[in-house]
Amino acid sequence: MPQIFPKKANVLPILSLGGALLGGVALIFLVWYYFSPEFLVVGYQPDQPVAYNHEFHAGQLGMDCRYCHNWVENSAHANVPPTQTCMNCHNQIKTQSPQLLKVRESWATDTPIQWVKVHHLPDYAHFSHASHVNNGVGCETCHGRIDKMEVVYQAEPLSMGWCLECHRQPELYLRPNEEVTTMGYVHPENFVEINLARIQEEGIQPPTNCSACHY
Amino acid sequence: MRNLLTTGLILSVLLLAGCRGTTSDRNPIHPNPNMDWQPKYQAQEKNTFFADEAAMRKPVAGTVARGLLKEDPIFYTGRTEAGDYVERLPIETTRDLLERGKERYEIFCAVCHGKSGDGNGVIMVGGPQGKGYGYTPAPSYHVDRLRQVSDGYLYDVIANGIRNMPGYAQQIPVRDRWAIVAYIKALQLSQNATREDLTSEQIARIQSGRSANIDGSRSGASSSQ
């Protein structure tokens, strides 16, 4: 009676064991890497109806973020500026520019410009800009170096795990309120102690419960 | 054989998927998008029901919201009932108000008028040749005409604009407008002061390299009026 398994079948157990191990590792890596919000969401850079350039306005002109996003300290929603804000300057600057045609049309017809939202939280997660900005969370911490973005892209995942990192250890991220809109802010060496003292003094208690954001 | 398989696998994954951190105009992938965009309208969203496709509708002219009657004309318009500009701002000028004014001034006004109020903001002197970007030049605050104007007039210019300057009523809340007025007054004072206006203590502070402010450690803030 011939053998059922030929001699070379001896490698099969090793092969399948090794394959299972390697495959498992590969699977874990693939899911961890490619199914993460860092991969799926970060870097979203849609084309906008008007080629607005943050690198020029915030970077080169050095305008403060709050000139345009002026309700960010008062409101949960940090507004996209209305056409009025564009026209404060562009009623006299580059009045013939074809790039600004849609702005002028919007102004003439009283129709809003349809900007594409880059940072969209699901509607079941509520976020307040005011409560973060007024407690020392800088624009840069969540939105990246906007002053270096010709076209805005999403720099951080805005996932729940990412939010909670800061809510659990805010002292690693907070900065003085006067520096909230500063781009390229460098923390002083002992910033963790400063922040811990501040958190103690002001009673900042970042919520980590469901009702804070999910109602 | 194994090597070939693994390299092939890695290569194909890299080709298909790319790396983290690359930008793309493709929509973000949410595995479960069920309640991402709920059938409700949030601020500044799109509503195709209306001709202009804005979900936010403008209030009818003449309507008054509860709590926003604006019954104090001096505070809200800078004018008395008779229509004259008020001489002094109707709220108390405190250190906090001036610091708020400085902050707001540097956000909204310094772009054209410059941080010192000389009319040399980046819009006026920026650009490749340093000749600005073609906006009508902003006047310096440190001329006699503007030193003598009333607070109500400055408030009115912020709220409603004047000639080539647009109004900032939609960007700057009422109390902040008064804070800016107070700060402009302090700026004017600071640029038109003589040695005689200072106390000997303040002169000593300046000579020792500190600010003339009472609290010299708070950088850049103007002395209160």
UniProtKB/TrEMBL annotation, chain A:
<protein>
    <submittedName>
        <fullName>Cytochrome C</fullName>
    </submittedName>
</protein>
<keyword id="KW-0349">Heme</keyword>
<feature type="binding site" description="axial binding residue">
    <location>
        <position position="139"/>
    </location>
    <ligand>
        <name>heme c 1</name>
    </ligand>
</feature>
<keyword id="KW-0408">Iron</keyword>
<feature type="domain" description="Cytochrome c7-like">
    <location>
        <begin position="50"/>
        <end position="96"/>
    </location>
</feature>
<feature type="binding site" description="axial binding residue">
    <location>
        <position position="57"/>
    </location>
    <ligand>
        <name>heme c 1</name>
    </ligand>
</feature>
<feature type="binding site" description="axial binding residue">
    <location>
        <position position="54"/>
    </location>
    <ligand>
        <name>heme c 3</name>
    </ligand>
</feature>
<feature type="transmembrane region" description="Helical">
    <location>
        <begin position="12"/>
        <end position="35"/>
    </location>
</feature>
<feature type="binding site" description="axial binding residue">
    <location>
        <position position="68"/>
    </location>
    <ligand>
        <name>heme c 1</name>
    </ligand>
</feature>
<feature type="domain" description="Cytochrome c7-like">
    <location>
        <begin position="126"/>
        <end position="214"/>
    </location>
</feature>
<dbReference type="InterPro" id="IPR002322">
    <property type="entry name" value="Cyt_c_III"/>
</dbReference>
<dbReference type="InterPro" id="IPR036280">
    <property type="entry name" value="Multihaem_cyt_sf"/>
</dbReference>
<feature type="binding site" description="axial binding residue">
    <location>
        <position position="69"/>
    </location>
    <ligand>
        <name>heme c 2</name>
    </ligand>
</feature>
<dbReference type="GO" id="GO:0046872">
    <property type="term" value="F:metal ion binding"/>
</dbReference>
<keyword id="KW-1133">Transmembrane helix</keyword>
<dbReference type="GO" id="GO:0020037">
    <property type="term" value="F:heme binding"/>
</dbReference>
<feature type="binding site" description="axial binding residue">
    <location>
        <position position="143"/>
    </location>
    <ligand>
        <name>heme c 1</name>
    </ligand>
</feature>
<dbReference type="Pfam" id="PF14522">
    <property type="entry name" value="Cytochrome_C7"/>
</dbReference>
<keyword id="KW-0479">Metal-binding</keyword>
<feature type="binding site" description="axial binding residue">
    <location>
        <position position="65"/>
    </location>
    <ligand>
        <name>heme c 1</name>
    </ligand>
</feature>
<feature type="binding site" description="axial binding residue">
    <location>
        <position position="86"/>
    </location>
    <ligand>
        <name>heme c 2</name>
    </ligand>
</feature>
<dbReference type="GO" id="GO:0009055">
    <property type="term" value="F:electron transfer activity"/>
</dbReference>
Automatic annotation (TrEMBL), chain B:
<keyword id="KW-0408">Iron</keyword>
<dbReference type="InterPro" id="IPR036909">
    <property type="entry name" value="Cyt_c-like_dom_sf"/>
</dbReference>
<keyword id="KW-0349">Heme</keyword>
<dbReference type="GO" id="GO:0046872">
    <property type="term" value="F:metal ion binding"/>
</dbReference>
<feature type="domain" description="Cytochrome c">
    <location>
        <begin position="96"/>
        <end position="188"/>
    </location>
</feature>
<dbReference type="InterPro" id="IPR009056">
    <property type="entry name" value="Cyt_c-like_dom"/>
</dbReference>
<protein>
    <submittedName>
        <fullName>Quinol:cytochrome C oxidoreductase</fullName>
    </submittedName>
</protein>
<dbReference type="Pfam" id="PF13442">
    <property type="entry name" value="Cytochrome_CBB3"/>
</dbReference>
<dbReference type="GO" id="GO:0009055">
    <property type="term" value="F:electron transfer activity"/>
</dbReference>
<dbReference type="GO" id="GO:0020037">
    <property type="term" value="F:heme binding"/>
</dbReference>
<keyword id="KW-0479">Metal-binding</keyword>
